[in-house]
Amino acid sequence: MLQKSAVEVGKMIADKEISPVEVTQSLLDHAHALNDKVNAYVSFRDDKSLAEAKQAEEEIQAGQARGPLHGVPMAIKDNLYVGGETTTMASKIHKDFVPKEDASSVARMKDAGIVLTGKLNMHEYAWGIDNNNPHFGAAHNPWDLEKTPGGSSGGSGAAVAADMSFSTLGTDTAGSIRIPSSACGLVGLKPTHGRVAKDGCFPLAWTLDHIGPMSKTVEDAAALLQVIAGFSPKDPTAVDVPVGDYLSNLDRDPSELIIGVEEDYFFRAVDSEIERLVRAQIDALVEQGAQLKTVKIPALAVSEWAELAISLSEASAIHHNDLVNRADDFGADIRFLFELGELFSSVDYLQAQQARRQIKQEFASALTDVDVIITPTLPVTPPKLGSATADLNGEQVDLIDNFIRYTGPSNLTGLPTLSVPAGLKDGMPVGLQVIGRAFDEQTLLQVGRMVEKNDPLGGKRAPVK
C-alpha cells in the first residue's frame, strides 16, 4: 500500500477499501522504522495525525468527501508554518520557534483533508543543496544511503522516495524542489512565481522563493498543486489568476507539442550519460509526433552571476541581525554564504536585476515559438554526502555551482518548471526539466505525463525498505 501513489490511495480511501487511520498508522510505523537510516523527518505528529485521519474517516463515511487527497498522509518541509507547532527551519536559532498561524499552503492542505504526519529535514534555512545539516544530521538518498538526496528539500525528496510520505511540499529558490526530485527519482514542480501563496514560509530570498509539490507521479503533483494553488492577500507576491483543473486534463497528443531545445547553455558541460538519457526522451516525443525547434537565450550567459548576486544579497539581508549577534549559531557553510552576501553592493544587486529582466524577456520570446523548453535538471549525478564536488565526465567540479546551474534560471524568470525522471545512471536517477510559459502549469504536467508513460526508470524504485 505504501508504494502506491497519493491519488491511488486517495481513491481507495474514498471507495472505503481502506481507512485513513489504517493508512496513516502504516505510514507512521514505516517512517519511524526507516528514519534512523534516512533521517527524512525532524519531527512527527503521531497523535495529531491519527486524530486528523480519524476525522477524515468520519467525514468520508458521512459522505462529506473533500477531494482526491482526503485522508492521505503527507509530511511537509520544516520551513512551512503549522500554527502552534514548532517550525525549526532545521536551524539552531529557530529550534524553538512556534508560529501562530498556518501557512496558506498548509491551511489549504488541511482544508483538502490531507493528514499531516510531521516535518521534514532540510538544509539549514533552505540555503544549500545537499541537506548535510549540522544541527539535525544529513538526510540520506534512499537510492544509495551514502549519497546526498539533494537539497534544500532533501528530507522531502528522501521521504517520498522511501515511501515515508505519499507526497509532500518543497520550497525552491535556486532549484530546491527540482534538485532533490531529480536526485531521488521523483516528480517535482516549481510553479509560476505567484501561483502558490508563500506566506507562512520562512524566506530564503524574497523575489526567488517558490512552494510546490514533490510526488511519485505527475498525477500526484497535479492533485497537490490543485490543492495549494491560488491567491492570498497575505502574500504580496501572490497573483490573482484563475487556477486550472490540473487533474482532469493531463493527457495530450504529443503531435500537438512544439519542444524547444537551448543547446548553448542547457547542454553545455553536462554528463554524457545524462545528456544521452534526456535526448532519448526528447527523441521519443518527436517519434510520437512532437516538433523540435532550437531556441536561443543569450542572456543565460550571465544567469549564474545574477542568481548568486540576488539570492545572496536577499538572504544576507534576512539574516543580517542574527549574523551580527549570533553568527556562531549558524552552520559553517551557510554562515560563509551569508557573510559573502554582505559583500555585494547595491550596484551589484541592481545590475543583477537588470540582467534578470533581460533573461525574462528572452525566455518569453523563445516561448512564443515553442510550448516548452526541455533540459537536463542536473548536469551531474548526486555525489557522496559531505562531498563539495561532483564528477562531470571524469573531472571533479564544484557541487553547488553545478547543482543549480540548470535550475536557477527558472527562479530568475519565475517561470513554471517541472522535473521528471528520465532514466538511471549507475543506479541513480536522472531528471529531465520542462520549462513553460507563466501560469501554464497544465502544459508542463501534460509533457511530464508523456515522459512518464515511457517508464524511464523501468519500474525500478529506491531500494531502501
From TrEMBL:
A Pfam family that the UniProt record links to this protein: Amidase
EC number: 3.5.1.4
Alphabetized UniProt keyword annotations: Transferase
Domain Amidase as annotated: residue spans: 22-445
Similarity remark: Belongs to the amidase family.
Reactions that this protein is recorded to catalyse: a monocarboxylic acid amide + H2O = a monocarboxylate + NH4(+)
Name of the protein in its database record: amidase
UniProt keyword Transferase present: yes
SUPFAM superfamilies hit by this protein: Amidase signature (AS) enzymes
Top enzyme category: hydrolase
GO molecular function: amidase activity; transferase activity
